[in-house]
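User: Please fill in residues for this 193-position structure.
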C-alpha cells in the first residue's frame, strides 16, 4: 500500500491546488460590478435662482422684442393702407374726369349743334335750298319760311326726316340721324331771323 499513498497525496494536493486555482480563476475572470456613477446632487434652490432669473429675463426680452416688431409691422401696414387709399382715390378721380371728358366728347358728337347743322347743310342741302329748286325754301328767305314755321317746328322736322313732295327723306342721305336732320333744320331757321 505504501506505493499508493504518495500518489493519493500528490493527487490530493494537486486537486486542492486546482480547486484553489479554479477559485482564483473564477474570481479573477468574474467581471467586477460596474462602478456606479455618483449622482449629481440637485442644485440648491438658492443656487438655481440666478439661473431662473436669467431665463425669465431672456424670455421677457424676447416677448418685448416680438411686441415691438409686431407694433412696427402694424404701423407699416397702416401706412401702406393709407397710401393705397390715397392712390385709389387719385385713380378714381382721374377715371371720373376721363369718363366725364369722354361723355362730353360723345355728347358733342351726338348732340346736334348749329355748327353740325351748318356742315350738313353745306355738304348736302345747299343744292336745293340755295337756289330754291323744286320750291325748296331758300336759306335766309323769311317769306318762304313763314308758312312752314306757322305749322310748328315739329312739322318741319317731320318733313325733313320723312320727306314730302320733291323733298327726299333726310335730304336724300339715309345715313343721317334724325338728330343730324333736326340740327340742319335748326341751322336753316336760324338764318331767317
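Assistant: Residues filled in for all 193 positions:
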Amino acid at each position: 500500500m505504501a506505493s499508493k499513498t504518495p500518489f493519493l497525496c500528490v493527487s490530493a494536493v494537486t486537486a486542492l491546488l486546482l480547486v484553489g486555482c479554479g477559485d482564483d480563476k473564477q474570481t479573477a475572470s468574474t467581471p467586477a460590478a460596474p462602478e456606479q456613477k455618483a449622482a449629481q446632487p440637485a442644485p440648491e434652490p438658492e443656487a438655481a435662482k440666478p439661473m431662473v432669473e436669467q431665463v425669465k429675463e431672456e424670455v421677457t426680452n424676447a416677448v418685448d422684442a416680438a411686441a415691438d416688431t409686431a407694433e412696427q409691422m402694424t404701423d407699416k401696414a397702416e401706412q401702406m393702407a393709407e397710401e393705397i387709399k390715397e392712390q385709389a382715390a387719385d385713380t378714381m378721380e382721374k377715371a371720373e374726369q376721363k369718363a366725364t371728358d369722354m361723355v362730353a366728347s360723345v355728347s358733342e358728337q351726338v348732340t346736334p349743334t348749329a355748327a353740325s347743322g351748318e356742315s350738313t347743310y353745306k355738304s348736302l342741302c345747299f343744292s336745293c335750298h340755295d337756289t330754291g329748286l323744286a320750291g325748296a325754301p331758300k336759306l335766309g328767305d323769311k317769306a318762304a319760311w313763314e308758312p312752314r314755321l306757322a305749322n310748328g317746328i315739329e312739322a318741319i322736322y317731320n318733313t325733313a326726316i320723312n320727306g314730302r313732295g320733291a323733298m327726299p327723306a333726310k335730304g336724300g342721305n339715309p345715313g343721317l340721324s334724325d338728330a343730324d336732320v333736326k340740327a340742319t333744320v335748326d341751322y336753316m331757321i336760324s338764318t331767317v331771323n
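For context: The mean pLDDT is 79.
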